[in-house]
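Input for the complex:
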Amino acid sequence: MKDTGVFFIYLAVMAGVTYLIRAVPFVLCKGKIKSKYIRDFLYYVPMAVLGAMTFPDIFYATGSYASSIAGFIVACLLAFFEKSLLTVAISASGAALAVNLGMMLFK
Amino acid sequence: MKGVRFYAAGYMSNFRKGLHDGIPIALGYLSVSFTFGLQCIANGLSWWQAFLISLTNLTSAGQFAGLGIITAGSGYFEMACTQLVINMRYALMGLSLSQKTDRTVRGVHRWCIGFGITDEIFAVAMGSKREVSNKYLYGLILLPVIGWSGGTLLGALAGAVLPDAVRSALCIAIYGMFLALIIPPAKKSSAVMKVILIAVALSCCFRYVPVINKISGGFAIIISTIAAAALGALLFPVPEADTKEAAE
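Predicted:
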């Protein structure tokens, strides 16, 4: 990020929108959301957004398919057994690192 | 005078209770934001830029998506839309939390405390047996903010000194964390799993299918998210008990 001015515009947009969406409903709201549909929609949003952000990007995360897939498999297994966020994240990185190093050694 | 003293005592205990309840949140944030700091450095931002983003945004998914947009040099409108959709859940949390606060949380305090509504802070505040005061909320928010921005700073500094092989391997950490967030609830609810699969399928289409893969990353995530969540709400209405549980 070379251009500091551009960075600050991005920062202002990002922080401004994030702040307003948090604060405005909190400040203005007096009642509960009535629509069941809207509440269900908002209930599903966090899961949907995480899914969309993870795939297919996870397969390109580490610079090689082999190490990305190794990290992906390890993460899925540990997440399935409900290990903590940190355990899953570090183990996925460890698996990717092992494959990266292995490929450097045997190339 | 007596009234003033009581007020001061109430202030301390309430504020300290908040600080105390914020400790586990701050520790959790330290590790997640460390990854964000690393990722910023890997994408060419400097340490102070990473730090400022975390200090002013205080959110995980939105920041990671925002980082992608900054790196790609996409437009400001796309940035605004992405943050709006990804952080829309905070609007819902703000609505719920507004029902839970006592009369001290009014006026300018609302505008200040609104900044600190995150998934975890919201969950802890809602878990309190009684209505929460502004002092309690300030205490609750303080340490997580320090943990989040401090962790980012540490990650960014580590990113600058770690060897390439380690740095690139660490870039998968955030996705591992996302999987750890979505797989357990997907195991418990087939509706949640289907919504995730729809979002994943759409997101992959936006990457691989000709013509629509011209749509940039931020919008692809927005469209995938809205379509999957809207379909989910239409096809799999959530039992009342579950939305209540999620809101608490």
